Amino acid sequence: MLGKLLSGGEFGQWASFVSxxxxxxxxxxxxxxxxxxxxRGTRDRDLYARVVRERQELLARSPLAVTLEGxxxxxxxxxxxxxxxxxxxxxxVETRAARVVALYFHQILHGDTTLLDLRQQAFxxxxxxxxxxxxxxxxxxxxxxxxxxQLYAGFYRDDEPAFQAGLRALNLTHAEDVFxxxxxxxxxxxxxxxxxxVTTFHQVFLRCRDAGTSLHPDFLLLGLCxxxxxxxxxxxxxxxxxxxxxxxxxxxEPLPRVANAHG
Length: 263
Description:
This protein is mainly α and 263 residues long. The protein is built from ten helices and six strands; from the N terminus they run αααβαβββαααβααβα. The chain has helices at 2-6, 28-41, 45-60, 93-109, 142-156, 160-169, 176-182, 194-211, 219-236, 242-250; strands at residues 67-68, 113-115, 130-131, 137-139, 189-191, 239-241. The strands form three sheets. A two-stranded parallel ribbon has the order 1-3. Strands 2-4 form a two-stranded antiparallel ribbon. A two-stranded antiparallel ribbon has the order 5-6. The relative contact order is 0.17.
């Protein structure tokens, strides 16, 4: 049932990315609930406005040169369709790719919600780099996002205990080698290809099925975000220093201290 729903509507373009084994390792009721929440969120303007505002505040504290604008403010056209001035230069594909990867990590590392739309059409192709995502919103389960952060930090900072702890928390220890391959096997420059993404996650789901383990339903949301990311980056056709993008995304200026009533 869920597979048929995913193949229709605005998420239909991702149906071919889904491995048949995916539905064998997910708790059906929880997965269905996640999908319903995702679909409801596309119609909740107040929720979208709040999530955009929260992400804007986090981006303002980061070194990422990404300007987030809600789609509802400018529904008619994307930034790259607007007339350009002499001061607005086209971004190189290398710069664009690095910023999109850093934005992906920024959303995973900071905040409890993520705007999943990282498709190419959601971004400008010039300076300033404007992002107008659709209202595809993930509200992460705290245990899931904490484990995912631990997994990424462990890998990109060579912290083996943290990496292993993240794998255990996500029930992925039996797919460790597959995930190392997915992350690029330690390469500094990684080229993103949709075929590699689909194959890797199919292998993960098969490992989980054969081991008799279930995965958290938030993998549905993560998979949609990664599918959009991979399709965008494959179209750019360049390699990205993913470790550098992770470190850049992890930087966040502290909130200014508020003086108390006594100074």
